[in-house]
Amino acid sequence: MNEHQVSRVHAALDHFCIETPSWGFSDTGTRFGKFFQDAAAINTADKLADAGHVHALTGCCPTVAVHALWDFTPDSDPAEVALEAHRHGVCIGAVNPTLFQSQEYMLGSFASPDPAVRQMAISHAIDAIDIARRVNSKLLSLWFPDGTNYPGQDNIRNRKRHFTQALQECHNHLDENQRLLVEYKPFEPAFYHTDIADWGMAYLLAKAAGPRAKVLVDTGHHYLSQNIEQIVAWLLDEKMLGGFHFNDRRYADDDLTLGSIDPYQIFRIFHEIHGYAADQGGAYPEISYVVDQCHNIKPKIEAMLQTVTTAQQLYAKAALVNHEELSKHQSKGQIVDAEEVLKKAFNTDVTGAIAEWRRGRGLGADPLAEHRASGYAQDAARDRRRRREEMGIKQTVCFV
Ligand code: PSV
Ligand code: MN
Questions:
Q1: Could you read off the pLDDT tens digit of each residue along the chain, which spans 400 residues?
Q2: Closest ligand 1 atom, CA of 145?
Q3: Is the bond preceding 189 in cis, omega lying within 30 degrees of 0?
Q4: CA 148 to CA 156: how far, in whole Å?
Q5: pTM for this structure?
Q6: Which residues surround ligand 2, an ion (CB under 5 A)?
Q7: Which residues line ligand 1 (CB under 6 A)?
Q8: In sequence order, what E strands does the chain have?
Q9: Whose C-alpha lies nearest to ligand 1, atom 12?
């Protein structure tokens, strides 16, 4: 890599932050069960400690996404949670209302046919906006389980209108500096139709909700072979891209660690973002990058570090695309040369430049190796095993 390339990598890393999810540090699994780890977080304080540790090692994860019902009990003081985060060197990021586990939501939340349930869901989302305000977060991130399981089960157009109204109501409660993100998903847990099934539906609902509503792209929430970078390009062009939930998948919403299956796809997504910024004279749009993964058979922190460092690498590689050369080839229809511009950037080894960037910030060159050498996981396992015993929690553990 020449000096110019190294400085492009450094400039990209200087502004690239990725938020870790509180739920990525606790025991999670699939619907077929969980495999327990002693070192997994028991409570919100543990999750924030783990998130702080990941940030201390990587220097690029200063915020933590939280889920309203998982991280805030009805009697907990949000300001205390924010303080706890600060104690670990991080801040609270996106606040996610939890609209998918209460029994009332069997037929949906914002789109439930029962007006009382719709009201309950809206009140919970408004409470989450209040939590966001009190923890100084600018983001309310909304995902809904809503949909139906059988043809004829409910009126799809009515449900769409319920969503529009409810999102408008939420939008009315936002502060000037807060934003609302609408996430889409084609199926699961509803299997006949999902109310916000794709980016077009999320786009229309966000538009109808108000100017501070944008679309959130979860990379796992697409049908196989869908061109996600095209969706990203369109949303960027419409100024409607609000954020990402990053994970990888082989089949559907597999929630695997980022880049484990298809790193080139994430590179192509980042390329669209760098290309857009280049067209805007180097100004990057405000995009929230959040990890959303459920690594149930990898040690939690190691999996998080893998995802974060992979995101940095791919973001850095995509920053190396030579846009002038690319558009020259594009305008002449030089397909092979145009594609080679992307491949050349993707195949560049950025490891040295990233290590240098880390050293410049007083960080170790290899976060995973640093983590393993730190003994953090062993200490957490010992402490959390003892606390679980004291709490009367008995579980067979698969590994530390
Ligand atoms: C749903 O599959 C989802 O992607 C939403 O973003 C939730 O908030 C998250 O997963 C919870 O695991
Ligand atoms: Mn998600």
A1: 999 999 999 999 999 999 999 999 999 888 888 999 999 999 999 999 999 999 999 999 999 999 999 999 888 899 999 999 999 999 999 999 999 999 999 999 999 999 999 999 999 999 999 999 999 999 999 999 999 999 999 999 999 999 999 999 999 999 999 999 999 999 999 999 999 999 999 999 999 999 999 999 999 999 999 999 999 999 999 999 999 999 999 999 999 999 999 999 999 999 999 999 999 999 999 999 999 998 889 999 999 999 999 999 999 999 999 999 999 999 999 999 999 999 999 999 999 999 999 999 999 999 999 999 999 999 999 999 999 999 999 988 877 6
A2: 1
A3: yes
A4: 9
A5: 0.97
A6: 218, 245, 292
A7: 23, 96, 143, 183, 185, 218, 245, 253, 292
A8: 20-21, 29-30, 33-34, 36-37, 63-67, 91-96, 139-142, 147-148, 179-183, 193-194, 213-218, 241-246, 288-291, 397-399
A9: 292
**Which protein residue has the closest C-alpha to ligand 1 atom 1?**
143
Are the C-beta atoms of residues 167 and 180 closer than 8 Å to each other?
A: yes
Q: Residue of the nearest CA to atom 7 in ligand 1?
A: 143
